[in-house]
């Protein structure tokens, strides 16, 4: 898998399935929160560094959650990780379950 083809994304809140990064953008350059924001909100904080992956070194490896349930359905879909048709989608949405994290 070429992780450079995955989009750089902000993580989503596990309960809501929606990122709260835009509302917290003011913390991007706060010395106390800078590292956390770079890991969890790289897109909002402009920390993608030209790369497009969200699961590389220094990033939090986490599966996305279903927006309606607030829970990831990746474990139920693990069989799709190596399916050529779904590999790209699974690497973006289920990197932890699929073992794509660096």
Keywords:
102 residues; 18% helix; disordered N terminus; mainly alpha; disulfide bond
Describe this structure in words.
Keywords: Disulfide bond, Signal. InterPro entries: ShKT_dom (IPR003582). The protein has one domain. The longest helix is centred in the middle third of the chain and has 7 residues, at 34-40. It contains three helices and no strands. It is mainly alpha-helical and 102 residues long.
- What's the end-to-end separation, in Å? 11 Å
Q: Please state the overall shape, judged from the principal axes of the Cα atoms.
A: elongated
Total count of helical runs of at least 4 residues: 3
> DSSP strand (E) fraction?
under 5%
Strands, total number:
0
Structural class: mainly alpha
Question: How many domains?
Answer: 1
Q: Percent range for helical residues? A: 10-25%
Please summarize the sheet with the most strands. Answer: none
Mean pLDDT: 78
Order of helices and strands: HHH
Stretches where pLDDT is under 50 for at least 5 consecutive residues are: 1-6, 51-58
| Integer-rounded radius of gyration | 14 Å
Q: What is the gist of this entry?
A:
The protein has 102 residues and is mainly alpha-helical. It is built from 3 helices and no strands. It has one domain.
């Amino acid at each position: 898998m070429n992780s450079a083809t995955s989009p750089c994304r902000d993580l989503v809140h596990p309960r809501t399935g929606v990122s709260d990064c835009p509302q917290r953008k003011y913390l991007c350059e706060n010395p106390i929160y800078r590292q956390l924001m770079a890991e969890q909100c790289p897109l909002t904080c402009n920390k993608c560094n030209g790369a497009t992956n969200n699961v590389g070194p220094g990033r939090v490896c986490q599966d996305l959650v279903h927006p309606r349930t607030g829970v990831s359905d990746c474990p139920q879909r693990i069989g799709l990780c190596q399916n050529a048709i779904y590999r790209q989608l699974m690497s973006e949405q289920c990197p932890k379950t699929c073992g794509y994290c660096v």
